[in-house]
Design goal:
It is a single chain. With about 180 residues, this protein is mainly β. The chain has one helix and nine strands. A hairpin with a 2-residue loop joins strand 2 and strand 3. The longest helix is centred in the N-terminal third of the chain and has 20 residues. The relative contact order is 0.16. About 5% of the residues have low confidence.
Length: about 180
C-alpha cells in the first residue's frame, strides 16, 4: 500500500510538472496588458504577436533662479509637457520566454510654458521582454521620436509663429507588465 501511494504521488507530481512546462508563455489574442516604465501604456493583443498600444508620458518642470551681485531677477514659467501615442507593437518568438519587439506609433504632444504649443510626429521603439508566465513580463526598450511643434499667437496687431522640430533618442527604459 505504501508503495502504491508513493507511485501515485510521483505520477501526480510528474503530470503536474508537465502541465506547468506546457504553459504558453506570453499573451493570447484578446488579452489586455498594463505596462509601466518611464510613462505608462495599455495594450490590447490582437494575436500572440501583435497588440494595439495606447500610452503616454507627462512631465512638469519648474525652475527657480536666484541672482545676486547686481544681476537682475530672472522670472521663469513652469513647463508642462504631455505626449500621447497610439500604435501597433509586434512581438517575435511566439510562445517563448524571451521575445524581441518593436512599436510604431504616431504621437501628439502638448507643451505649455507661457503659451501652449501643440505638436505631432512619430515614434519607433525596439526592445525585448522576458515572460515569466502568461501574466508577468519584464523588459527593456529604447525609442526614437520625431516631433513637429508649432505655436501661433497674436496680440494688438502683432503676431508670432514658432515652428520647432525635435528629434529625440531615449535612454534604455525598463518595462514591467502584467497581463489580464
Amino acid at each position: 500500500m505504501r508503495r502504491d501511494v508513493t507511485i501515485a504521488a510521483i505520477m501526480t507530481f510528474a503530470f503536474a510538472s508537465m502541465a506547468v512546462g506546457q504553459e504558453t508563455l506570453g499573451p493570447a489574442a484578446g488579452t489586455w496588458a498594463a505596462e509601466a516604465g518611464a510613462g505608462g501604456s495599455l495594450l490590447r493583443f490582437r494575436s500572440p504577436t501583435s497588440a494595439w498600444i495606447l500610452g503616454g508620458t507627462v512631465s512638469h518642470t519648474r525652475t527657480d533662479i536666484e541672482t545676486s551681485g547686481g544681476f537682475p531677477p530672472i522670472d521663469t514659467d513652469p513647463v508642462t509637457r504631455a505626449t500621447l501615442r497610439f500604435g501597433i507593437r509586434r512581438y517575435r518568438n511566439e510562445g517563448e520566454s524571451f521575445r524581441p519587439f518593436y512599436t510604431v506609433a504616431p504621437i501628439v504632444t502638448f507643451f505649455h510654458s507661457d503659451s501652449p504649443e501643440w505638436g505631432f510626429g512619430g515614434m519607433l521603439e525596439a526592445g525585448a521582454a522576458h515572460f515569466f508566465s502568461r501574466h508577468v513580463s519584464l523588459g527593456a526598450s529604447g525609442a526614437v521620436t520625431g516631433t513637429y511643434q508649432f505655436l501661433s499667437s497674436s496680440s494688438g496687431g502683432s503676431s508670432i509663429r514658432v515652428r520647432t522640430i525635435i528629434i529625440e533618442a531615449s535612454a534604455v527604459r525598463v518595462l514591467a507588465a502584467v497581463y489580464f
